[in-house]
Design a protein that fits this description.
With about 140 residues, the chain is mainly beta. It has one helix and eight strands; from the N terminus they run αββββββββ. The strands form two sheets. A five-stranded antiparallel sheet has the order 6-5-4-7-8. It starts with 9 loop residues before the first helix and ends with a strand. The chain binds zinc ion (ZN). Zinc ion binds near residues 29 and 32. Zinc ion binds near residues 31, 32 and 48.
Length: about 140
């Protein structure tokens, strides 16, 4: 059983096309420079429709997370338990993703993470996050 994947349409498709190239990009307002995610036409900060895809540093921290212990879709049966987390990127946007190199019991809110990418199909590559080395 394969896992459900994002529908590749509109701005969402553009977001995942950047991921397929190994780049995490978010929309950045051309008027006020505010980053936003999930993809949408309008800046919630200033109301502008002008924007560009701006590359993220890929660095962030765990904003919150949950441990999924029971698969709610057959495609995830071999993955449990796994962490579904909200990551706050350095640019200020938050994105939902998996943390792939960290046993669930070691996760902490505020933990530094860095983006990586996992190819799911010919069309879809998902951003995932790994623990970042701290200095
Ligand atoms: Zn704006």
């Amino acid at each position: 059983m394969t896992r459900p994947l994002p529908a590749m349409t509109g701005l969402t498709a553009q977001f995942y096309e950047w991921c397929s190239r190994g780049e995490l990009r978010f929309q950045r307002c051309s008027r006020c420079a505010t980053f936003r995610h999930v993809p949408r036409d309008l800046c919630a900060e200033c109301g502008s429709f002008d924007w560009e895809w701006a590359r993220s540093s890929g660095n962030g921290t765990v904003f919150t997370y949950t441990i999924v212990a029971r698969a709610l879709h057959p495609g995830f049966a071999d993955a449990v338990p796994y962490a579904a987390a909200v990551i706050e990127l350095a640019e200020g946007v938050r994105i939902l993703g998996n943390i792939v190199d960290c046993p669930p019991g070691e996760l902490r809110i505020g933990m530094p993470v860095r983006v990586d990418f996992e190819r799911q199909s010919d069309a879809v590559t998902l951003p995932v996050f790994r623990r970042a080395l701290t200095t």
